[in-house]
Design brief:
alpha/beta, single chain, 2 domains, five-stranded mixed β-sheet, seven-stranded mixed β-sheet
Length: 354
Amino acid sequence: MSFKILAINPGSTSTKIAIYDDVKKISGRDIEHSNREIAKYDKIADQYEMRYNKIIDFLKENDADIKEFSAVVSRGGPLLPMQSGAYRINNIMIDRLKNRPIIEHASNLGAIMAKEIADSIGVDAYIYDSVSVDELDDIVKVSGLADIERRSLTHCLNMRAAATKIAENMDKRYDECNFVVVHMGGGTTLTAHKNGKMVDMVSDVEGPFSPERAGGLPTDQLVDLCYSTDKAIMDKKLRGKGGLMSYLNTNSALKVEDRVRNGDEYAALIYEAMAYQTAKYIGKLSVALEGEVDKIIITGGVAHSKMVTDWIRRRVSFIAPVEVVPGENELQALASGVLKVLKGEEEAHEYDLE
């Protein structure tokens, strides 16, 4: 018996959707949301109806009978610390994402849309390998200020999928390997994987800058800037208008790369600085693994840039061989994950953390 699965992955500038028969992709679409379209909405929550309607339009255009779906699965938004694997989407999770979001992010909408579709046909909806997966040791959570505990927020879904793929290529199991994994997208996060657990991480607000994130900043200057700037404006500076957006007024790595090739020395400086900072944090996480690193894995949309990955490789290849797994394989990872639940190979957790 095969299972038909609808997978949803909302990102800052797109909503990616696909229909799977087991793990075979039947159809899919990357729905792009232009800056002009997104700018119509004051808050991410206000985008819900627009994104939901586009998913329904996709299903109608593909003559998809939603009654055939065995489950709906979505990328999980920021929640309280969770285990890896599947979580059944319930009303407690929806209340958190709708009314008390930990971070304003488009992924918060995913579980809400998935549950609405699933409820309409009487099946379960799930998230898998949420960004809030927390497998950190207590020592990793110490920040340096007693008021603040480090939070585990990463691109866990794509990172674990890429790490599993590389382990298979090495004829090993994921839990037999040690990796440093970098996901380079609109935001960049890094994780140290030790024998199947993410034992340390660098979030997109404390690590290298990226196309849209400012990353870790000098705290004294940051405090001064916060006191001289409205909070809403400051939030945007750090997430959305930081990084390449701040320096070069674009979040497109492709456009920046074109400027570099056309001799724009300032763009070249900023673009290489992004790679340089990423390389430094790879070195930092190699310490978490005590130097025992089997592979360094670079994934995410920016990993399509050979210019960036070559800059990183040059600086970190002394630590371990570098593997590039470009793009985001998150829809496939979502379908593969929930299929394990449907086949009884994995048990879904219940979200009761509030």
